[in-house]
Design brief:
- It is a single chain.
- With about 140 residues, the chain is mainly beta.
- Helix content is about 10%, strand content about 45%.
- Strands 5, 6, 9, 10, 11 and 12 form a six-stranded antiparallel sheet that branches. The chain has a four-stranded antiparallel sheet with strand order 1-2-3-8, with no helix packed on it. Strands 4-7 form a two-stranded antiparallel sheet.
- Strand 2 and strand 3 form a beta hairpin.
- The longest helix is centred in the N-terminal third of the chain and has 6 residues.
- It is globular, with a radius of gyration of 15 Å.
């Protein structure tokens, strides 16, 4: 999915019973972009997932963390470059509306959602603001290596 000059997609490495892989952000524009890095409240809440099956959608969010040092941390993505955020929905850092190991069933699709709302920190740091959704990727297909 593309929003202005930023695109996002999922490269799935494992699907059942717990999806894992990489969320890839691609800077399609001609100027550098800044995105939140995970490991702080800003980066950890910006990336989430949806699992869709028919008319039903389950939401998968990173569990709230207790940070010993919580400061905004960003990554700079040059033009034509990509930033990869590795994920494993079975690593205990994620919570869902249903048990995660029961979400990867026939016809289920995974969507990555990057949602960075305007905040004083985002404006101050020049971080990309908006919402992106990847195209759905089927969880019952063999992942690409």
């Amino acid at each position: 999915m593309n929003h202005e000059s930023l695109a996002v997609h999922i490269e799935l490495r494992s699907s059942a019973p717990r999806p894992g892989g990489t969320v890839v952000f691609v800077n399609m524009g001609s100027t550098p972009l800044r995105l939140w890095r995970t490991g702080s409240q800003w980066g950890d809440t910006a990336l989430s997932f949806e699992v869709r099956r028919g008319e039903r959608t389950w939401y998968v969010l990173r569990k709230p963390q207790d940070y010993t040092r919580n400061v905004p941390s960003l990554v700079r993505v040059p033009p034509a470059a990509r930033y990869e955020a590795v994920f494993d929905l079975g690593d205990g850092q994620w919570e869902a509306d249903a048990p995660i190991d029961q979400l990867a069933v026939a016809d289920a699709q995974l969507v990555a959602v990057y949602d960075n709302r305007s905040s004083p920190e985002a404006v101050d740091q020049g971080v990309w603001i908006g919402q992106l959704r990847s195209s759905p990727i089927r969880l019952d297909e063999e992942p690409r290596e």
